[in-house]
Amino acid sequence: MTEMTVPLVSRGNGRWGSTSPAWDHLIDRESSGIPDIIQQIHDVNTGGNEAEGLFQITPKTWVANGGKEFAPTARRATPQQQAIVAARIFTRNPSGSDWGAGRPGREDPSQLAAGLVPLNPQEPAVPDNRPDFNEYPMWSPNSQSRAGTKVDLFLLHTQEGPGNADSLAKFLQGNEVSYHYTISEDPNDHGVTVVDVVDTDEASWSVLSANNRSINLCFAGSSASWSRDQWLQQARAIDVAAYLAVQDCRKYGIPLTVIGTGGKYSAARAGIADHQYVTKVLGDGTHTDVGPNFPVDVFSAAVTKYAQGDTGGTPPAPPSPQVKQFPKDYTDRELLEYIAAQLGPGDPSWASTGKTLRDKVWGL
Fold first, then answer.
1. 137: helix, coil or strand?
2. Number of domains in the chain
3. Is residue 16 exposed (0-12), middle (13-18) or buried (19+ Cβ within 10 Å)?
4. What pLDDT does residue 96 have?
5. What's the CA gap between 46 and 281, in Å, rounded?
6. Do residues 212 and 298 both lie within one domain?
7. Helix 79-92 crosses helix 109-116 at what angle (to 10 degrees)?
8. Which of 3, 70, 229, 288 has its CA 20 to 30 A from that of 280?
C-alpha cells in the first residue's frame, strides 16, 4: 500500500487547511482538531485499540460492512478500499456521533470518502496472487515502542512446542514474550491461520537487542529439530509467511533479500532471516531456530513469486549470469574459430599433407 503523509498545520488550528473535507473530518475525530503528530494514511492509530486504517475501522466493523471482499482487515486494504467501506458505514449511520456525520458544513458521507481517495472498487487491495488464509487480531500487551529505530529485518521463528496459531497467540497474552504474527497450517484441511499479535509499528518481545529493528513471525507448533519433510507438511504456511514478509518489506523499506536460515547467511545485513541470524551474526542470545532443515529454497521461491506479483515492490535481483572461463567453458567449434582468428586470413605457406589441425581449421 502506498504511504502518504498528512500535511500538518500549526497547533491549535482545528482545521487542516486541506482542500479535501475528508482530512478535516478525520482530524476533527482523531485529535479533537489539534494535529500535533504526523499520521500516515495506511495506519493512523497505533495506540493499542483495535481501530485500524485511515478511517479507524475495527476488524468487527470491517467484516460487518463487507470489508473482507477487499482484505482481511482495514490495515491490509488500500486507501481506496478503506474509503469504500467507510462510505458504507457513513451511509448506514448518517447521524452517528462516531463519524460526526450530519454536522453543519459536512458533505454527504460517500462524497466525504470520495474527496479523500477515488472510490475505485476495481483496484486490488493486495496482489492478485494473494494466497488463501484466515487472519484475525489477538493483541498482546507484550510490546514496546521502536523508539525511532529503522525496521530492516523480518525474522522467522519456531515455537518449540505443540499448538497452533490461535493457542500460541493466547499464550502470548500473559507471558513475557511475543511475536508480530503466529501462523499454522491445519493438518486436516491444510487451511492456514494467521493471528496478528503485535502491531508491526511496535516492537515485539522476540529477539532481545534486535526487537526494535525487526518484524517477527512464529510457526506455531514447529521445532528447530524438524526434518525437511516435516517442514514441507507446512508448505502452505511457509507460502503465506513469504507473502506476509513481502508485504511488510514493502511497507517498511526492508530489502526483499532472503539473507538465509539455519546458520547459513549471505553478507547482507538487512532483509529476511531467522532467529539464529540474531545469535550467529548479531551475537545476541543462543537460539538456533528455525533450524538447518527449514526449506529456505521453497520459502525464497515464494518470496520471489509474491515480490514479482506485487507492482508496488521491487523483486529480488536475479543472480548474475555466470561468466564463461577460457578454455574449459567453450565448445569445440568456438575453440576452432578462435584458433582460426589467430592464424589470420589466407592459407599458411608451408606444405601440408591435408591431415593436420591447420587443414581442419581452414576447412571450416
1. strand
2. 3
3. buried
4. 41
5. 31
6. yes
7. 170
8. 229
Rounded to an integer, what distance in angstroms lies between the CA atom of residue 227 and that of residue 294?
8
For residues 301 and 154, membership in a common domain is answered with yes
pLDDT of residue 184 exceeding 60, the answer is: yes
Whether residue 123 contacts residue 184, with contact meaning beta carbons closer than 8 Å, is answered with no
> Which is more confident, 25 or 37?
25
DSSP secondary structure, 177-211, as one string: ---SEEEEE-TTT--EEEEE-S-TTSEESSSGGGG
* Residue that finishes a domain, picked among 118, 153, 181: 118
Half-sphere exposure of residue 139: CA atoms within 13 angstroms, side-chain side:
17
The model's pTM: 0.58
- Do 202 and 281 have their domain in common? yes
Asked whether residue 103 falls in the same domain as residue 240, the answer is no
Give the three cell numbers for residue 156: 522467522
My answer on whether 291 and 225 are in the same domain is yes
What CA–CA distances, in Å, run from 159 to 233, 260, 363? 16, 19, 70
Co-location of 140 and 112 in the same domain: no
**CA distance linking residue 57 with residue 272, whole number of Å:** 30
Instruction: Give me the domain span that covers residue 221.
Output: 134-309
Mean pLDDT score, 230-250: 94
Looking at residue 288, its amino acid is T
Q: Is 350 exposed, middle or buried (0-12, 13-18, 19+ CB in 10 A)?
A: exposed
On whether residue 282 sits in a domain, the answer given is: yes
Identify which of 165, 119, 111, 174 has the alpha carbon closest to the alpha carbon of residue 142.
Answer: 174
Domain end position, chosen among 91, 118, 145:
118
d(Cα 241, Cα 156) in Å, to the nearest integer? 9
Per-residue cell: 227: 526434518
Range in 217-231, 253-267, 282-296, 318-332 the model is least confident about: 318-332
